[in-house]
User: What shape does this take?
Amino acid sequence: MIHDLKIRTQWLARVKSGEKRFELRKHDRDYQVGDVLHLTEVNDFGSPIFYPESGDESEGPDRGHNTFDVRVLHVLDGRQADGIDDDYCLLSIAPASHE
Assistant: This one.
């Protein structure tokens, strides 16, 4: 399954560089190992950032937007861990390969 999610600029940069290999998310979806998180860069107000030099939005939904796909390697439910609220989960992630 593919989950379309928003992510702020500073966190997306760390995910892309490999420095950040996890996502702490509200557990409001049925996240499973093998799922893909389609991350779209957003500003502090939650709106996707458009980069005109990257293309015209009419060329497709992601054209001109900074996006990155990662695959879920492990799901730690907050109900199973001390220190994580029951409504959240910690997702171990790695860059998704597109085959």
